C-alpha cells in the first residue's frame, strides 16, 4: 500500500466516493456494484477496513438492504433524483452487496446473514439458476440497459462460496479467490 501508484489510486477512489458513502458503478447497476468493486479493491491492496470512509460505505450498503434481506437497484438510480429509490431485491445485486460487506470484514454481521438467507431462499429455475428478470447491467446510463443472464448465477455462487470459506476458517479477512 506504500507504493505511490497504489496511494494515488486509493486517493482517487476516496475522491470519487459519494457523500453518502457509496461509489458510482459502471457495468453492473449501479451504486451497489460500484461500492462492492471499490471495497474489494481496497481490501486487495491492504487498506485498513476500519477506516472511516470504508465504514461509511459499509453503512451505506447496510442501509440499502431490503426487508427481505436482499439488495436491489434499478437503472433509475442513474438519475440523480432517483439514485437511491428502493427496488426489488435481485440475486446478483445481493451478491455484490455481500461480497462488499465481506471484503470489509463484515462476515458475521446480521446484514450478511440476512443476505445469505435471501440467496438460499430465492426461487430458482429447474436447472438451479436464480430467477432474475430485471436488467442488471448498463450499456450507457440513462440510454440503455442490459441483462447478463450469467450474473444471476455466477455472483450468488461466488458470494455463497466466499461466505462458506470465511465462516469455515473463522476468518474475516478476504484473500484471493473464492
Structure overview:
The protein is mostly helical and 178 residues long. It has a single domain (4-168), classed as Glycosyltransferase (Alpha/alpha barrel). The protein is 46% helix and 4% strand. The protein is built from 6 helices and 2 strands. It has helices at residues 4-16, 31-44, 52-63, 91-103, 110-121, 151-168; strands spanning 137-140, 144-146. Strands 1-2 form a two-stranded antiparallel sheet. It is globular, with a radius of gyration of 16 Å. The two termini are 22 Å apart. 42% of the residues are buried.
**Total E-strand runs:** 2
How many alpha or pi helices? 6
Order of helices and strands: HHHHHEEH
Largest sheet: 2 strands, antiparallel
Residue stretches low in confidence (pLDDT < 50, at least 5 long) are: none
Shape: globular
Indicate the radius of gyration in whole angstroms: 16 Å
Distance between the termini: 22 Å
What is the CATH level 1 assignment? Answer: Mainly Alpha
Q: CATH fold name, please?
A: Glycosyltransferase
**Class computed from helices, strands and strand pairing:** mainly alpha
Mean pLDDT: 92
What topology, given as strand order, has the largest sheet? 1-2
Keywords, separated by commas or semicolons:
single chain, 178 residues, mainly alpha, Glycosyltransferase, two-stranded antiparallel sheet, 6 helices, 46% helix, globular, repeat, Squalene cyclase C-terminal domain-containing protein, SQ_cyclase_C, intramolecular transferase activity
Amino acid at each position: 500500500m506504500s507504493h505511490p501508484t497504489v496511494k494515488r489510486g486509493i486517493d482517487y477512489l476516496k475522491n470519487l466516493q459519494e457523500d453518502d458513502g457509496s461509489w458510482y458503478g459502471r457495468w453492473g447497476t449501479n451504486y451497489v456494484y460500484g461500492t462492492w468493486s471499490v471495497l474489494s479493491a481496497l481490501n486487495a491492496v491492504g487498506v485498513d477496513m476500519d477506516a472511516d470512509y470504508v465504514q461509511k460505505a459499509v453503512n451505506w450498503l447496510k442501509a440499502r438492504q431490503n426487508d427481505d434481506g436482499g439488495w436491489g437497484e434499478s437503472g433509475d438510480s442513474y438519475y440523480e433524483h432517483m439514485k437511491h429509490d428502493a427496488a426489488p431485491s435481485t440475486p446478483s445485486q445481493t451478491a455484490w452487496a455481500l461480497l462488499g460487506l465481506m471484503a470489509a470484514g463484515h462476515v458475521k454481521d446480521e446484514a450478511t446473514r440476512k443476505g445469505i438467507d435471501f440467496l438460499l431462499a430465492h426461487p430458482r429455475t429447474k436447472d438451479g439458476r436464480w430467477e432474475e428478470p430485471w436488467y442488471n447491467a448498463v450499456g450507457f446510463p440513462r440510454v440503455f440497459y442490459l441483462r447478463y443472464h450469467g450474473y444471476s448465477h455466477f455472483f450468488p455462487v461466488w458470494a455463497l462460496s466466499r461466505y462458506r470459506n470465511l465462516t469455515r476458517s473463522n476468518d474475516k479477512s478476504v484473500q484471493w479467490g473464492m
